[in-house]
Amino acid sequence: MRHLLSTLDLDADAATELLDTAAKLKATLLGREVRKLPTLRGRTVVTMFYESSTRTRVSFEVAGKWMSADVINVSAGGSSVGKGESLRDTALTLAAAGADCVVVRHPASGAAQRLAHWLSDNGTAVVNAGDGMHEHPTQALLDAATLRERLGELAGRRVGIVGDVLHSRVARSNVHLLRTLGAEVVLVAPPTLLPAGVDDWNVPVSYELDPELPALDAVMMLRVQAERMHGGFFPSAREYSIAYGLNEARLRMLPEHAVVLHPGPMLRGMEIASAVADSPRAAITQQVSNGVHVRMAVLYHLLAAGAEETRTKETV
């Protein structure tokens, strides 16, 4: 694996291998007083975030440090970007300074792909940590890892993705990955929060939440991304919550085994009730924990797996 830019780049075997590696890393670290592996010693990972982030940025930093990499954080406000430097020049500067991997979040869709193109001759790997409204592949991988832990194999499972699909890179990445792993996906949203061309995603779409709940094995609530909205996409927060919020009554409509996910940050009381978010049915903190192990697996496959395979062949 050269880069991780999109879940469309992963077939079922590649995705399963990443998830299996994450599970093995999690088991390896379980119960350790010092959670440290020497796998990426001598490697440098740079996180370059042009948008605010807590979960993704912290988990990539923890993942790199748990694997003994040198992790450097770059923010737009504290770098030459604030002086007008282009994304391309910033990326080339980081590569020239010795970055083995650049983890990038950017408000422009396609930014990670452009970065990978510019760094194609430098040997620097690129991980897409969210580009505009396009994709967020490691979020989809950690969601799949969480569902595998809770439900077992994903083939044949039905997952509802609910809410602001229009602005959600999480939704796009999950639709691709979950279908690749054999799950069925249904999108539930008001018509105003569905993207143009959603028919091309080849998944069913519903405008009503309640009829879908009894048949779901998992429900993924999406954050309403007000910062990307210009104009009225729904009448009010209260009306949105009444129609699409996951409350205790709706939780009881789900099958007993069904899992509740949310990529965060949560708008409690609007998208999801606090009683639901904090219930045993919710796997929201488990998603965050699995995010570290999934991102460890991604860094391993980008920076170490090839070298280990080479050493094994030379030994044989």
Please provide a written account of the structure.
- With 316 residues, the protein is α/β, with parallel strands linked by helices.
- The protein has two domains: 7-135 and 288-315, Aspartate/ornithine carbamoyltransferase (Rossmann fold); 137-284, Rossmann fold (3-Layer(aba) Sandwich), CATH 3.40.50.
- Helices cover 39% and strands 14% of the residues.
- The protein has helices at residues 12-29, 55-66, 87-96, 111-118, 137-151, 169-180, 237-244, 248-253, 274-277, 284-303, 305-315, and strands at 44-49, 70-75, 101-106, 125-131, 158-162, 184-188, 205-206, 218-221, 259-261.
- A five-stranded parallel beta sheet has the order 7-6-5-8-9, with helices on one face.
- Strand 5, helix 6 and strand 6 form a beta-alpha-beta unit.
- Helix 1 packs across helix 10 and helix 5 (137-151) crosses helix 10 (284-303).
- The two termini are 23 Å apart.
Entry keywords:
alpha/beta, Rossmann fold, 2 domains, 5-stranded parallel beta sheet, 4-stranded parallel beta sheet, 14% strand, disordered C terminus, pyrimidine biosynthesis, Asp/Orn_carbamoylTrfase
Write the layout of secondary structure elements.
Blueprint: H1 12-29, E1 44-49, H2 55-66, E2 70-75, H3 87-96, E3 101-106, H4 111-118, E4 125-131, H5 137-151, E5 158-162, H6 169-180, E6 184-188, E7 205-206, E8 218-221, H7 237-244, H8 248-253, E9 259-261, H9 274-277, H10 284-303, H11 305-315
